[in-house]
Amino acid sequence: MTIIKNEKQDIFKMSIQVRLNGFSFCILNCSHNEIAWYKKIDLGKEHSPVEILKEIEKLYAEETILQNEFQEVIVLFSNNLYTLVPESFFIEEEASTYLKFNTKILKTDVVAHDVLSHELVNVYIPYTNINNYFFDKYGEFEFRNNISVLIEAVLAKHNESKNAQVYLNDYSSYYDLVVVKNNKLLLANTFQYETKEDFIYYLLFSAEQLEIDPAEFNLWLLGDISRDSDNFSIAYTYIQNIDFLIPSFNFTSILEQSETFHREAFSLLKTLKCE
User: Fold this and answer.
1) In angstroms, rounded to a whole number, what is the distance separating the alpha carbons of residues 79 and 92?
2) How do strand 241-244 and strand 112-116 relate by DSSP bridges?
3) pTM
4) pLDDT above 70 as % of the chain
């Protein structure tokens, strides 16, 4: 999906989401508080960070709008190379230690962290080669782990419901899952799947481990999932309260199906703000 605004504007901000099965770019025109351009590249299967960078370089060679100057660039790394740590236990010099329990760390890996609300820290591994590429292009820029954006957005809702609220952001072959109850984070995890049965298994297994009843919790859907998809159908079979989240952003969009776009590009849009 591509949207191009040809008018020249003064101030642009850009968010970039990097996944191993693709990437997305979103440009906000702060002169009109409007999304000026959006591009999503799906590569199907997972690729290495080296292969992903080659595809990003190809896009830069093809799209002249990416040659603009940007007031701000934010890169989001979407992967499962992260772990959450209570801020009171977090020691920056020991950041890699927290990841060793669930992630294979290479000597060449750089460990980063996002300080979140509710006294949480997300420790994760960004893709160094891709960070270096954007640093060469833009100098200093901000980068975060993609699920950090979802966690903060969910906790900012201040939902005091006694029923658990489950947020699922789908990326075709994996999804981020965030569960809160009484405005407390119960779970944040990323699950890879190949079939619709995998899709529902990880969701129901998570509910079982958290001792929350599928007949009682609310499931809110984001990302690459539609009402006529197999994944939605099987989720609807097992979960009573299921709906699509309708994000609210304070800028306009030139997409006709803006709600669909807002769900698909939720993390990208959530990071973009005009002063």
Assistant:
1) 21
2) unpaired
3) 0.92
4) 93
